[in-house]
Design goal:
Elements: H1 3-16, E1 35-40, H2 42-46, H3 48-60, E2 64-65, E3 73-77, E4 83-90, H4 93-96, E5 102-104, E6 109-111, E7 122-123, E8 135-142, E9 148-155, H5 158-172, H6 178-193, H7 197-209, H8 214-226, H9 233-239, H10 250-260
Parallel strand pairs: 1-4, 4-7
Antiparallel strand pairs: 2-3, 3-4, 5-6, 8-9
């Protein structure tokens, strides 16, 4: 999960009182959208049986295929005004292509098995370490039947999260819908602000480890261009977001993000 994953992580860290690079009292309010991005590991996409089980679960929950994004996006109407959209995403394309049991291009990935279901996942730039060190959070609630429910949710590690949000900002910063660029820029701030010291060290180590990767080098260049100062375009987009109230902490953010790519 991406947007909802950040929402869950923010609530988790706030409740746990974990020390982070920027204090929780200065984070923007947590937000979630109608979109749920499900991040599928390459191993899951390669397994036709697992993909069949996932498709069966979506069907059982009355999700329908979105006609203009067949087998990548599913929608369910909760009420007349409330719709939930599920996007199926997976690891970066060059990671996916190392799996012989997966057929993939820049748009979609699916099992090669003849008995594969009608279910695909979209390769995601920056998703390099999805299964290496996820943050697992237990969520609890009540089902529509009234039954109590609890389940673990795995959230991608901070390195993959930061790369995915940087590439999303990079790809949408000049889009006519400027709010999308602002949302992704704000999420870059949110990810950096919520880093613990061990996560910061892990991000730096992975940036060195994957330095030759095209997406990583693109993101490093983007940070140095768009998040270098208070007047850089990414920072301006961030500060234009309706939830922004962190000018007192801007210098800490700029120092922290510059240190990550130094």
């Amino acid at each position: 999960m991406r947007g909802y994953g950040l929402y869950l992580k923010q609530l988790h860290l706030t409740q746990a009182g974990v020390r982070t690079l920027i204090g929780a009292e200065l984070w923007p309010a947590p937000r979630a959208t109608e979109d749920l991005d499900l991040m599928l590991s390459a191993e899951l996409v390669a397994d036709a049986r697992s993909m069949t089980a996932l498709r069966a679960a979506l069907d059982k929950l009355n999700y329908e295929v979105r006609t203009n994004s067949k087998y990548l996006q599913f929608v369910r109407t909760i009420t007349g005004a409330q719709v939930v959209k599920v996007d199926l995403l997976t690891a970066q394309l060059d990671v996916i292509k190392s799996f012989p049991a997966i057929s993939a291009d820049s748009r979609r990935a699916r099992p090669t098995a003849a008995d594969r279901p009608q279910l695909h996942a979209h390769p995601t730039d920056g998703a390099l370490t999805l299964t290496e060190a996820p943050l697992v959070i237990k969520i609890t609630g009540t089902l529509s039947t009234g039954q109590a429910f609890a389940a673990p949710v795995a959230i991608p590690d901070a390195f993959s999260y930061l790369l995915m949000k940087l590439t999303a900002y990079r790809d949408l910063r000049n889009d006519l819908d400027k709010d999308m660029g602002r949302h992704h820029a704000m999420d870059v701030f949110r990810i950096v602000a919520m880093l613990t010291e061990p996560e910061r060290d892990q991000v730096q180590a992975n940036l060195r480890r994957f330095a030759a990767d095209d997406q990583v080098s693109s993101c490093v260049g983007l940070v140095r261009l768009a998040f270098a100062s208070a007047t850089s375009p990414g920072v301006l987009a961030m500060r234009e977001h309706r939830l922004w109230h962190n000018d007192p902490q801007l210098a800490i953010f700029l120092e922290a993000i510059a240190e990550l790519v130094s």
